[in-house]
Amino acid sequence: GGVYSVYAVADRVFGMAAKIANGDPEKLETMRAAVEKGFQEAGIEFNTSTGASGLPDICSNTHDEIMKRFDDLKSQLTGGTKAETGTASC
What we know:
mainly alpha; disordered C terminus
């Protein structure tokens, strides 16, 4: 739990992206791409500095949660089925 939990970080990252997109599906896709790029670059930096071959599980889980939220909001904005987004902390 806490401020670095999957859901707390996803809340902050996705909250900022959704606010910037302001209900525009095209801007939402631009923000999704920016978040994806950020995770890719973080992975490269992490792997280079640690010799690892991927991000820690908590990072992968956070990525998955953020992408789920992008999918849910996109569905809402384009008239698809509304899906629930989790906000509980771990």
